[in-house]
Amino acid sequence: MEILKKNELNKKGILVEYDAGYISPNDNRHFINEINKLTRGESIVEEPLVVYAVMQKYGVENRNGRVYPENILRKEAENYLKLIKEKRAMGEADHPDSSIVAISRISHNVTELWWEGNILMGKLEIIMSPGFVNQGIISCEGDQVANLLRKGLKIGVSSRGVGSLKKENGKNIVQDDFELICWDVVTSPSTPGSWIYNEEPSREQQMSESKNTKDKNLLLDSLDNFLSE
User: Is residue 1 part of a domain?
Assistant: First the structure.
């Protein structure tokens, strides 16, 4: 099954959304301070590494030009809660051309989902290996994600599912054959205001537009402040 392109309609395929947001260095300073002990000869990194994220929004056009209706996204979120309960809500680093979550590429596990208005919020644990936790040795995808955080880089999450699109009132609408597979860690967000935090964000933060220049400047200031300290 192929990944559907931005405006590919009336065909079932893999829908990937580069939708959620960045992990700010300031918002994860505690973890970064712990992991930087490795550079001082210490060998213990605190676990678990948990972040909060705006997972997705219904009724909002994302940067792929797609809109997820409320009933469809709520249904799939409810189904996903079953995977969370069974500890099977895992995702990969980057989007593969597949509808299967590969064990060798697992980087995180979603531990909670909840709604705040039209915003689907989530809590994720980054899965790190003992070698990385104790010695800083990168041997799995979760280690890569944790190391990017250590470097102060901006990364985010993105949904992956199977379904089709139809043009309705000038918008590309996700249809009721949509099935959510997972959320992957990516570098390019599309859903407006979908940032990642190490504490549950305020309503104002959830509603902010990631394409807004002011928000971009705030993130750059945060990164510059971290790197200069």
Answer: no
